[in-house]
């Protein structure tokens, strides 16, 4: 089979499609251009345990593992996987769907056996990336893609928290980061947030006190206040102070939010930090893992008009940072043993060769095993960041 012609109008056709018709449009385009016999978009659920087909309810396909099988392998390794099947049925190509480092799901395309050439697979990989960007945009106008991400109903607190998040990953020349929340369908007060511009990355991990809707409301206020202060262009310490004032004004010190704030200079690797509470920071460098001891300051909103000081540290190319909330480092087993630094060191050591998204998942899996149940007693937030540095 001859190589297909370039796909100059594909992006325009996807953009023109109604949000709920996006997958159907992708199916028609690929049938015309590469002879695709079937196209299925599968999205990762909130717990990152399964990949679920996007379809109009009540009709839906069976989910598949996000870790095993050909689709799970494509999602886990972030590379195309060709599944060789019977010649009459053709081959299936499974392609990761990722938006700027945020793993969205997998696109499965069934092709005639002689059409699964390297050139076509490369074109399909580009198509899957473009489709991912359109899904992210279309998700503003329809619940179709959100519903495909859940295996069961979310609590109201979890619904609020997931809507508040920037995503579950981000990749730039200077860094790659990935994050995870657990229990995914009942999360209450834990949150992570980030924003990167030309010169800086600001990363925060927040642990709101309490449970359920009250914790979610507290965290929503805290994150909104931090974003408002960040967008005003003030220093990291002043961001903490302004958020502290907002939380105290609302709760009068009866509720507060423990938050770790980090600001990375993308050109130099200099990091400014404000430790306002309980999230902990670990660094892995040259095979050695250590907890980065920061000056513990007051949680946001505990007292009126608290002042915060910044500390400075440096990251080097090859460094891996891990931030965990209280629900991780303070969780106890049935025997009363704290998950803590020793177990985190073990997990980081065992996952040194894998990507950040697998590290975050491994920490949560280790936490659940240590606790002895997936019904965790507290929310758990994990953020893993690999620092590459800026070339030149």
UniProtKB/TrEMBL annotation:
This is Serine/threonine-protein phosphatase. InterPro entries: Bact_Sigma-Reg, PPM-type-like_dom_sf, PPM-type_phosphatase-like_dom. GO terms for molecular function: phosphatase activity. Residues 172-387 form the PPM-type phosphatase domain. SUPFAM superfamilies: PP2C-like (SSF81606). It comes from the Bacteria. Pfam families: SpoIIE. Keywords: Hydrolase.
């Amino acid at each position: 089979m001859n190589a297909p012609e370039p796909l100059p109008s594909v992006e325009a056709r996807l953009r023109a499609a109604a949000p709920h018709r996006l997958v159907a449009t992708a199916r028609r385009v690929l049938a015309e251009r590469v002879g695709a016999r079937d196209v299925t978009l599968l999205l990762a659920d909130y717990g990152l345990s399964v990949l679920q087909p996007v379809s109009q309810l009540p009709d839906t396909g069976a989910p598949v593992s996000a870790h095993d099988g050909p689709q799970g392998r494509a999602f886990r390794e972030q590379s195309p996987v060709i599944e060789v099947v019977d010649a009459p049925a053709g081959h299936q190509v499974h392609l990761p769907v990722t938006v700027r480092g945020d793993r969205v799901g997998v696109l499965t395309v069934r092709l005639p056996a002689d059409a699964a050439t390297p050139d076509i697979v490369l074109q399909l990989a580009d198509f899957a990336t473009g489709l991912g960007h359109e899904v992210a945009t279309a998700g503003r106008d329809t619940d179709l893609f959100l519903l495909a991400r859940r295996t069961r109903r979310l609590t109201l607190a979890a619904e609020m928290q997931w809507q508040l998040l920037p995503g579950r990953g981000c990749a730039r020349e200077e860094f790659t980061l990935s994050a995870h929340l657990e229990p995914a369908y009942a999360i209450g007060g834990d949150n992570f947030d980030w924003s990167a511009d030309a010169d800086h990355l600001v990363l925060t991990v927040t642990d709101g006190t309490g449970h359920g809707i009250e914790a979610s409301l507290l965290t929503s206020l805290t994150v909104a206040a931090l974003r408002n202060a960040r967008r005003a262009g003030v220093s990291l310490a002043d961001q903490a102070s302004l958020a502290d004032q907002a939380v105290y004004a609302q709760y009068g010190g009866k509720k507060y939010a423990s938050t770790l704030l980090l600001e990375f200079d993308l050109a130099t690797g200099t990091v400014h930090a404000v430790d306002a509470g309980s999230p902990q920071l670990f660094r892995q460098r040259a095979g050695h893992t250590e907890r980065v001891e920061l000056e513990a300051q007051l949680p946001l909103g505990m007292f009126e008009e608290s002042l915060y000081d910044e500390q400075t540290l440096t990251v080097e190319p090859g460094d891996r940072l891990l931030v965990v909330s209280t629900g991780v480092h303070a969780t106890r087993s049935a025997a009363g043993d704290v998950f803590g630094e020793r177990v985190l060191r073990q997990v980081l050591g065992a996952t040194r060769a894998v990507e950040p998204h697998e590290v975050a998942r491994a920490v949560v899996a280790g936490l659940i095993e240590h606790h002895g149940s997936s019904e965790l007693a507290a929310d758990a937030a994990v953020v893993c960041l690999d620092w590459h540095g800026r070339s030149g």
